[in-house]
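Teaching note: in complex prediction, the entire set of molecules is handled at once rather than each chain in isolation. The prompt given to students was simply: 'Predict the structure of this complex.' The entities are:
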Amino acid sequence: MKIAVPIKFVPDLVEELTIDPSGTALDTTWLRLIINELDDHAVEQAILLKERSGGEVTVLSAEADGVDDFLFTAAAKGADRLIKLTGDFSAADNHALGRAFADVIKELQPDLILTGVQAHNDLDGSVGPLLAEYLGLPYVGYVAGIALDGNKVVARKEYAGGLVAEVEVKLPAVLGIQAAEQPPRYVAYSKIRQVMGTAKIEERPVSNLESSGGVVVGRLFQPEVAERATMLEGSPEDVADKLVGLFKELGTL
Amino acid sequence: MSQDIFVVIEHLRGQVADVSYAMLAGARQLSKASGGEVVAVLLGHNAQGLASNLAADRVLYVDHPALAEFTSDAYQIVLAGLIQEHAPRAVLFGHSSIGMDLASSLSARLGIPVVNSCRTFTDDGKFVSQICGGKIMAEGNLPSPALATMIPGGYKAEEGQSAQTPPLTAVSAPALDNLRVAVKQYIEPDTSDVDISKEKMLVSIGRGIQNKDNIELANELADALGCAVSASRPVVDQGWLPTTRLVGKSGKHVKPKIYLALGISGAPEHVEGMGESEVIVAVNTDPNAPIFNIAKYGTTIDMFDLLPVLIEKVKQAK
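The expected output is the structure of the full assembly:
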């Protein structure tokens, strides 16, 4: 079983996001990029499948600050191959990224491709289903749990309200991961350091990157709110008193 | 290209999803800008009854045994054909487990742009999308033609419901052979645990709870208040609470009298499950957290400073 996991780095939402003077993009001066959380789950799910049934896991990413560390971490967890797409990704949207991933993944000929079902900065669609279509493969998203079964997989697809559908998908296929079967594992830095000495990141230059998705942003802004929360001020004691008063008033205490 | 706005109706096990009605309301606004009709697109098997209360000008209905359950494969084939034949101004999908299996794939297949996470449209045909966990809105001209996925919150489901049954045209399905995706079975939600959608008050925890041991604080507060503990996705994904306690898009939808959100940022996926709570009280150290945009009361005091005091005061008040 060969598994490919294309991943994406996204702005860290813990940091304050500011909009650049053009008004159409995030200011990247202080922007910290981190792994899209759901892609991290996709890597974990791939490694779980490898541990269960054997195989080879390849993790792929476009170049960005911090990507090398993430790839080495994936290797320390059990990924076999690391591929970094290089080029100017500054204007690349998900369509362009999906095409670039498709070109490289075609050569790998994987049986299964796992990627996060979405990223918080997706605007022109999501990478998983775009990639699936460029590769001519079936796509099923919102997956939390995968069982291998010969030339097909059974994916647990989540719906609203906690309903789950067991969906049979013929391989090769692309699955959009909502959650791995267990939380992404922790790996000690000493182990990552060790891997850095032996693992190799294969670089693949990509040209023709552009915003091919055709979605043009005219304006970015912070949500305009009709009525923001009334902030309860004071010490923890003051705020606790106000909350107890509120609970009583609304009859929950 | 026509000026009609297509809405792909999402339904599962005989029930139309609320987002479909909200999309019809959004489509109505777009159709005023375009001058076209609102067309509900319903795919299924013996499912025409689901069209009865759709606030659409007309319904295109495709019936086929292979459409009895939702699968991305069969839906994509049928929708690609319909979109190519009718060339609508825009096609709306839910930003959901169904819609997100379709919109991007069809964009790549048909070469039509797709805009994700649209919350509202404007009278002059712009999209307004919510991105970056609810912290940023992106506005732009809706490409023509376009596909779009819609998140809840921008339009009320009631606006997309009608007492009158819209005229329905049955369209024959294309060949649906060699399908690669099939539904084997559904697994019902676990009902052995407390039903958080029936609780009068919820103490709900998010990523800010930091680790499993801290959940005891939330349990203690909930016990003192006589209510249950619920959570956002990261807490459940870590295995700190069972999925029966999950509030949000793929969890429970709750409307308690008080929703006490502890360390929850308020990402759209979470808000989808609790946005209609009567009173939301948010405790979060990040003053820019989107949860404060929907909360009635808030505080940026660290929950670990607040909770021990609050637990004592609630116990005393009883």
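Point out the following to students. The mean pLDDT of chain A is 96. Chain A has one domain: 2-205.
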